[in-house]
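[User]
Protein folding is very new to me. Any chance you could explain this protein sequence and its structure tokens? I have pasted everything here:
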Amino acid sequence: MRVLEALRDWRRMRRRARKRLARLAEADVVFMSPGKAGRTWVRVMLSHVYHQRRGTPLDELIGADNFHRLDPAIPIIYFTHDINEPPAVRRALNADDLEPRKLVHLVRDPRDVAVSRYHHFAFRHDEAQRRRRAIPDDLATTSLFDFVTDERLGLPVVIASMNRWAEIRARMSRVLLLRYEDLHADPVREMRRLVDFLGEPASDAELRAAVEFARFESLRKREAEGFFKQEILRPGASGDPRSFKVRRGKAGGYREDFTAEQLAVLDRLVDERLVDGYGYKTGERTPALNPADSPAAS
């Protein structure tokens, strides 16, 4: 039985790799982010800008070429988390193969990302999905700290991905770096940077409307109602709030989940392994942000 399951998984991966490579070849823009960095929130806001300016469906999120088919002026955007891609696609995601495309790189404090990954795998994935991702069966009994410090699943994996993409960014000519924390602090300003980069300048009123549409409470309500066509904004288990895509949405919320000693371990991992320049290492941290709920889907 296990052999048959492994064969089905291998065939599924091959089909997915072919499909993803074809989409990458057509893309005008690559939008890279670690999983759980707030990408869904940004997609909702960006989709709402296009809805206002070009009449795309209100209940649909931009992904690959769906908006481009409706209006060729909208770029084809390839959204990726990199570490979730099949090996063949990961090999194609490098600076030499990505030029002359534009690259949008969205990042978030890797400690927050690692905590959100735990909740995502524990409550949004079923057993088969966890098996395909090599997530251990005992995840429900694994402590949050053990998961976050795990070399294969937690903070070290997130840091390695961020380091890889810092090197890729340095070799590309058209790059926009977005930080979740900056979006949290001033979403209109950061969304203006994004739409200008994509060639779709929007008014302040349009940007404010997009931010309002994507507020935390609104997104969580729409997720519960199944408002959006894409399954990405559906609960993993109906009625279980822990399985919502829109979970907590805080900048620096990880600090509430660990003891002082555990936080010191996480800080040391970031300081020792993450490359300079992101603003997350002890010596380069930005001023503390308001820890109140943000409008983000984390």
In short: The longest helix spans residues 2-26. The radius of gyration is 19 Å. The domain at 2-284 is CATH 3.40.50.300 (Rossmann fold).
